[in-house]
Write a structure and sequence with these properties.
Elements (H helix, E strand, L loop, with lengths): L2 H10 L15 H15 L26 H7 L1 H14 L1 H20 L3 H6 L12 E3 L2 E3 L1 H15 L8 E5 L5 H7 L6 E6 L1 H14 L4 E3 L17 E6 L13 E5 L7 H8 L2 H4 L3 E7 L24 E8 L8 E5 L2 E5 L5 E8 L6
Parallel strand pairs: 3-4, 3-7, 4-6, 5-6, 7-8
Antiparallel strand pairs: 1-2, 8-12, 9-12, 10-11
Helix pairs in contact: 1-9, 3-4, 4-5, 5-7, 7-8
Length: 358
């Protein structure tokens, strides 16, 4: 099916597709993203071949400009040439820093033995790709580099077995699931996100794996629990339906970045649920401080202290290294400049304590 057909099928199986703005106390960032998504759907600008995963509110992030066949085909010859010379003349320092960041990230992936995974999943060949940078024998973008690092660590630390159930909260377009499905084809992949994000992941994963079993929002209730779902399935669960699985126990629960962007009420809904507390493994990457006093990045007061659990023991804890030295141009205290992030990110893997019932 083409993108439009996939969108129509998803919406027909998601009766509450347009209800996410009614969820109370959404943080400002996610409220703005959901509103932008609905506005773009209403104007007919959403869910096109080249923008269902790269759109005005979210993207694979910018990479240095190249005169490549991919860019000529994707963006047009004239646009590519003009932008190439513009950035080389007027944004030379920014482009140099961006390239350094990419090369740093690739080196980190090599250090954890992830180069093979990166080579096997070139950025420019993935469904919906519109951003790719070619270096050596690889094509990458920042989001793919991030996902590759995460997935290689899932492999390295044995966080999944090929018959497990993996619940990923905030899965966007399913980039991690795409990388790991080839390694773990029998894992039950449960993606938890807003409806429009699940629609993006359904498009992406359906085009990537058309023969897989894709369970849409109104079909989840057909199964007694997650263990009864056929192995190798992709399950698309809206955040508003999280209560349907919050008391179950699974192999792995993960969240990358979005828990630290939520208001405390939503953060607690996830962290205090049995799913998080009694999961066999958890894998979390989030900000040390969501909103430092000198830069109130998000409208929340979550910190590293809010991720500690008395039911889970920490197996791995360190700084999240990807994009760590990246500089971003933004305004702080009325001055615009290239700056590092207000808070770095921690990376934590845990396992359920032995004295808990299974």
């Amino acid at each position: 099916m083409n993108v439009n057909e996939l969108v129509q099928k998803f919406i027909s199986h998601a009766p509450d597709f347009y209800s996410d703005l009614k969820i109370g106390d959404l943080d400002n960032k996610h409220s703005d993203i959901v509103k932008s998504a609905y506005d773009s759907i209403e104007t007919g600008k959403a869910f096109k071949d080249k923008n269902f995963r790269n759109w005005s509110a979210q993207s694979d992030l910018e990479v240095p400009m190249q005169l490549s066949t991919f860019n000529f085909k994707t963006h047009g010859f004239l646009y590519t040439v003009l932008k190439f010379f513009y950035v080389k003349i007027f944004r030379r320092d920014v482009e140099k820093a961006a390239l350094t960041n990419i090369l740093d990230d690739i080196s980190i992936i090599k250090a954890i033995n992830g180069e093979k995974l990166l080579k096997e999943n070139p950025a420019h060949t993935a469904s919906g790709a519109s951003t790719a940078y070619f270096t050596d024998d690889k094509s990458v973008n920042l989001r793919l580099l991030r996902y590759t690092y995460i997935c290689q660590n899932i492999i390295n630390h044995n966080l999944l077995s090929n018959s497990g159930v993996w619940v990923d909260v905030g899965s966007y377009y399913g980039g991690c699931q795409n990388l790991l499905y080839k390694k773990f084809p029998n894992v039950t992949n449960v993606l938890v996100d807003f409806h429009h994000q699940l629609c993006r992941s359904y498009i992406f994963l359906s085009q990537s794996f058309p023969d897989a079993n894709h369970i849409l929002p109104d079909e989840v209730s057909n199964y007694e629990n997650l263990d009864s779902i056929p192995k190798g399935s992709f399950v698309y669960l809206p955040v508003s339906d999280y209560y349907k699985i919050e008391n179950q126990q699974v192999s792995l629960v993960s969240n990358f970045f979005s828990l630290g962007e939520m208001r405390r009420e939503f953060h607690s809904t996830y962290m205090n649920s049995s799913l998080f507390k009694k999961s066999k493994k958890t894998y979390l990457i989030n900000r040390w401080i969501s909103s430092p006093f000198f830069e109130k990045t998000y409208d929340t007061d979550i910190s590293i202290l809010d991720y500690m659990s008395n039911t889970q023991k920490i197996d791995y804890f360190d700084m999240f290294p990807m994009h760590h030295y990246q500089l971003m141009k933004r305004e702080i205290h009325g001055r615009v400049a290239q700056r590092s992030k207000g808070s770095s990110y921690f990376e934590m893997m845990t396992s359920r304590k032995n004295n808990l019932s299974t």
